[in-house]
């Protein structure tokens, strides 16, 4: 368990970890994707502009859905660095990297330095981790906070250390204030699962866990206070179509368990196999190895229950099973247990020593790599991104050549070479996605494009009006307030001059009503988070686009 990596291998592993970190930063300046990222960024922006960090306001209305913690952190970064794309994404990426550090520390405690470093490489190159560091929501925060909580609770148990218990409780409270009470499932599942499987019954009822619960309740008081202040003392507010809604009750029950049982105000439909096929692509290029490692872990573990750690498998599988049973399912939910997935996969790869087994894994990963590269080539052929410039081509080509030739220098038949080649393939794929595909794709998110245009072309500071009830890309990127309007309710032309952002057919309808309209800019828009083949194909794309216009409406 205490083995260390030879110095020459350590240098190479650190180099590849640095590459993996870099690829997670490669989407830092890519425009925020609607709806969630732009919504969350707009909430934090509203907090900063109105100096109100207790209330969550959306479209001028009270919003009861997510807890405050990620908005507070984002607002802090906005205050320090200014309101921008990268200032929104940076804290999420940093929390994920904190998760990588704790993944390393936890894997090293449980296994050794080699497994720890491989775990970090696997985590940082998992497909949906990189995607989530571009399309930042709550999950990067949760990923870091949950593995940090488990690590410190593990240390509190093995070292009998109060300060470790305090840190574990603090990170757990932050996780709860990020996503709600369901955040305790992977944390509690990891710790409780270990004790139950190894029959350490007394540890389940140790005083330290009661102290931890008390500390967590103390640390979440800021969240409870804000909910009480915004909702519970205002029963007259209409939330989810009804009055008398308790923010605290929603936080403790409806926001998570209400979704799980489909009894809360926010409902969904579920597929018990949703997270199985989601993991197949979300944990690429490691997903096939992960499923094998789960099978091998359980097969060997039942023969040596007391000699094996069960933290990772317990935290991962309990969360996996509960999410699968839930009626409310989204792909990025599983990110929070990817550190456990990474450790389980890394310890399996470390345990493989036979030449035939390594060869089988090498062939499997070669097939996965080829398929991923084929998808990239197909995307390039059909989508034809205009951001695929020579600097991007050069960078990707260098990494591609490293993928082809560098593993040979590390002895091509070793497991380390297999891992290195897989890591470099993931870097190639995601450099293309973040530097070529996404920048080109976001040009079809007309709300953010129009906001930037208006920022540069509205010296008169005309009021800006939109016809949609919510347009978070425009609201976030616009450097002035955005006003919502329903043109159907306005019977006579307006008196004052303003800028209007609306669909082309709406503008034509206003002209027919006698409005004095001057078209100043045109855009094409698409719901970029719901990609379909007809849009991805450059030959059929135009039919999928909706015309949008920025017009100056001249008053009477």
UniProtKB/TrEMBL annotation:
Q: Its topology with respect to the membrane?
A: Multi-pass membrane protein
What's one Pfam family the UniProt record gives for this protein? PMT_2
Keyword Thylakoid present in the record's keywords: the answer is: no
MF annotations from Gene Ontology: pentosyltransferase activity
Which top-rank group of organisms is this from? Bacteria
Q: Does the keyword Ligase apply?
A: no
The protein's location, in the record's own words, is:
Cell membrane
- The segment(s) forming the Glycosyltransferase RgtA/B/C/D-like domain are 65-225
Please name the GO terms of the biological process aspect recorded for this protein, alphabetically: lipopolysaccharide biosynthetic process; response to iron(III) ion
PANTHER family cross-referenced by the UniProt entry: MANNOSYLTRANSFERASE YKCB-RELATED, UNDECAPRENYL PHOSPHATE-ALPHA-4-AMINO-4-DEOXY-L-ARABINOSE ARABINOSYL TRANSFERASE
Q: What is this protein called?
A: 4-amino-4-deoxy-L-arabinose transferase
> Highest lineage ranks of the organism?
Bacteria, Pseudomonadati, Bacteroidota, Sphingobacteriia, Sphingobacteriales
